[in-house]
Design brief:
about 60 residues, mainly alpha
Amino acid sequence: MPEEKGMELGELLDPDEIRLLEAEAARRGMTLAELAKLGIQQELTRRTRPRAMTGTIQAFRRKD
């Protein structure tokens, strides 16, 4: 099984951001890793959600 390589939150965020996330995780009763996972999942969902079509949909009419 291949070894998983990833980054630690400390490598991605500065200490102030880590403290804010830790406080929010404690408020929600989650671990820091769970809160980070939730945030990433929500962002992926937001970015990949199909957009509603805008504008008027017109019926196709054949030109004779």
